[in-house]
Amino acid sequence: MTTDLHFSPIATFSGLRNVPLFALSRNSIHPVFAVGDDGVTIRVVRRHHLPFSEIRKVSVRWRLAYQVTIVPKRGFRTFSANFISKAEAIRAAALLRQRGVALDPATDDLCTSVAPP
Predict the structure, then answer these.
(1) Distance between alpha carbon 67 and the CA centroid of its chain, in Å?
(2) pTM to 2 decimal places
(3) Which of the residues 11, 34, 103, 115 could staple to 41 if both were Cys, CB 3.0 to 4.6 A apart?
(4) Is residue 21 pLDDT above 80, yes or no?
């Protein structure tokens, strides 16, 4: 039985690795960001499911909103979910860390400095 935890981003994006603030596509009408038992589901134009084992790292940054960025191990794309709430972005990153996904050092420090989700 799948127990996905759904978050409420204001928008989701697909971008290029190492090119911040440039989106290949976006979705602000019906964005989806969910963490399941085996991976992350994010909807930009279509739904993408990224198994935890295929995620290189996750970061949280402020870029006009609190942006959770997922960098897959393969491919040239990145996936981001933007949140109004800093707490919700940190909660998503902390949940990914609990599931064994690597966080960048700044995000790891951010998650360590707040209470667990």
Answers:
(1) 8
(2) 0.89
(3) 34
(4) no
Q: Tell me: pLDDT of 2 over 80.
A: no
Residues near 109 by beta carbon (within 8 Å), at least 6 away in sequence: none
**Helix, coil or strand: residue 81:** strand
Q: Which domains does the chain have, with CATH numbers?
A: 5-110 (2.30.29.30)
- Per-residue DSSP letter, 107: H
| Mean pLDDT over the full length of the chain | 90
Packing angle between helix 105-112 and helix 86-98, nearest 10 degrees? 100
Structure tokens at 24: 């290949």
